[in-house]
């Protein structure tokens, strides 16, 4: 489990195919940036752009993960070099600064607007309709591994557009600063919303 509070911005330094077949996955070698890897063991989980990955190799400042083709098809930002948001798995005694995050990407959203508003930034994302039903005013959503609060939701043709206010700190310390209109982002809905839907719709 994770919190959606990004601990560091790292960088995918290399993407190596794990085979010649079209359905082969890739191995990512990631520079962890300021993320402390001293307590990370092989087999531990780290979210990379919001997707939970297993550490298979590590040095003092880098780690490797294998990403299946299925995961590549369901996420954005893991198939090429570039900056990525990183967070180590939550420990039982840690503060839950964001919200409960599983690191399982539910789908891809598309940025429709990203621009300064005063000292902050407004981010608007079009989510698929199957994700939109879980979005609520002042509810939680994870975008590229960042726990954020929904400011508004509007159902439109093609899905649900939600808006978020990003404070300067969040823009500065995450990869969200690199977004632009048309960018694809990894979305994970609030885990509690899943249980509420099941309880409301399960046979009695």
**CATH fold-level topology of the largest domain:** Elongation Factor Tu (Ef-tu), domain 3
* Termini gap: 30 Å
CATH class of the largest domain: Mainly Beta
Radius of gyration: 17 Å
Q: Strands of the biggest beta sheet: in what spatial order? A: 10-9-13-7-8-12-11
Quote the average pLDDT.
Answer: 95
Which CATH architecture of the largest domain?
A: Beta Barrel
Number of beta strands: 13
Return the string of H and E elements: EEEEEHEEEHEEEEHEH
Major β-sheet annotation: 7 strands, antiparallel
Shape: globular
Helix content: 10-25%
Q: Quaternary status of these chains?
A: single chain
- The number of domains is 2
Strand content: 35-45%
Number of helices: 4
Structural class: mainly beta
Uncertain parts:
none
Key features?
204 residues; mainly beta; Elongation Factor Tu (Ef-tu), domain 3; 2 domains; seven-stranded antiparallel β-sheet; six-stranded antiparallel β-barrel; globular
């Amino acid at each position: 489990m994770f919190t959606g509070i990004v601990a560091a911005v790292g960088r995918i330094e290399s993407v190596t195919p794990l085979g010649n077949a079209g359905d082969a996955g890739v191995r990512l070698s990631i520079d962890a940036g300021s993320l402390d890897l001293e307590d990370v063991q092989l087999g531990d989980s780290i979210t990379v752009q919001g997707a939970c990955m297993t550490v298979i190799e590590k040095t003092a400042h880098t780690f490797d993960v294998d990403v299946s083709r299925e995961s590549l098809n369901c996420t954005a930002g893991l198939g090429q070099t570039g900056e990525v948001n990183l967070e180590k798995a939550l420990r039982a005694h840690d503060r839950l600064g964001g919200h409960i995050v599983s690191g399982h990407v539910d789908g891809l959203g598309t940025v429709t607007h990203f621009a300064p508003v005063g000292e902050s930034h407004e981010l608007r994302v079009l989510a698929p309709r199957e994700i939109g039903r879980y979005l609520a005013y002042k509810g939680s959503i994870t975008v590229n591994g960042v726990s954020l609060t929904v400011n508004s939701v509007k159902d439109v043709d093609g899905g649900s557009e939600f808006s978020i206010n990003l404070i300067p700190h969040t823009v500065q310390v995450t990869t969200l600063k690199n977004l632009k209109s048309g960018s694809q982002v990894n979305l994970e809905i609030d885990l509690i919303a899943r249980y509420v839907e099941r309880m409301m719709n399960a046979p009695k």
